[in-house]
Design a protein that fits this description.
Blueprint: H1 9-35, H2 39-79, H3 87-101, H4 103-115, H5 122-146, H6 151-165, H7 170-182, H8 186-202, H9 208-212, H10 215-242
Length: 243
């Protein structure tokens, strides 16, 4: 596998710049006309923006030259195994650990812990999301391996999620549907999706365009179900305490 570390880095820098410039202009406008924050605070914010620019650029470059090719290679290798079912527990493990590394998941957990004053702890939310994503990726690998149509999972899954909202609290319902979005971050999309595409491309009788894609839909659905389940457990425990 021929890897050129800084191949296409200029394009990545341009993409990150185009993403951050509107945010800088937006902040500058509010700083001049409304916020009027102290100079030290403004300096700290711009230092953070510079670090964000550097971090995003290096991360996205690493995705292009590292995660995507390696994930595809792993999928190709696993597709030639005699015991291909092993990809199901491997997918579960990868989904679990990948969620720990998702930046958006970390931010969501911190905000939930802060807004609820520790009522929903960070660590509990992290474990809940990790287990949900792990199960969804294991199901996605099962779907690829046995050729199960995607709607067999998506249709009943969203019906169950909407049904659970009728019994869950508004707090957990709001968090659940945000959790579905943050779980589909760069770690899952770049690395695990690449494995799924490589696996479906190697597996006889599978089409990566049909069987390889669809995993992200499952990943977006699973945290909704797991957080709503957590909400129902909280509600049950509170009802027992009141009783």
């Amino acid at each position: 596998m021929d890897v050129k570390i800084f191949y296409g880095f200029g394009d990545v820098l341009l993409e990150v710049s185009m993403a951050l410039i509107p945010l800088i202009l937006f902040f500058s406008f509010f700083q001049v006309f409304m916020l009027k924050l102290p100079l030290k605070k403004v300096k700290d914010i711009f230092v953070g923006l510079v670090l964000t620019f550097m971090g995003l650029s290096l991360f996205l470059q690493g995705v292009h030259v590292g995660f995507l090719p390696v994930g595809r290679e792993i999928g190709d290798i696993v597709g030639d195994w005699n015991h291909q079912w092993l990809l199901i527990p491997i997918g579960f493990l990868l989904g679990y650990v990948a969620t720990f590394a998702e930046p958006a998941v970390r931010v969501l957990n911190m905000e939930v812990d802060k807004v609820t004053s520790g009522y929903i702890p960070q660590r509990l939310m992290l474990y809940t999301l990790s287990i949900g994503v792990a199960i969804s990726i294991a199901l996605a690998m099962t779907r690829i391996l046995y050729g199960i149509p995607l709607w067999y999972f998506i249709g009943p899954g969203y019906f169950l999620a909407l049904s659970m909202t009728l019994f869950s609290t508004e707090t957990f319902t709001s968090i659940a549907f945000d959790a579905g979005g943050v779980a589909t971050g760069p770690m899952t999309v770049t690395f695990i999706l690449a494995i799924a595409l490589g696996f479906s491309d190697t597996l006889e009788g599978r089409d990566p365009m049909i069987d390889g894609f669809g995993m992200i839909a499952l990943v977006a659905l699973a945290p909704i179900l797991s957080v709503l389940t957590l909400g129902l457990l909280f509600k049950y425990n509170e009802s027992r305490s009141d009783g």
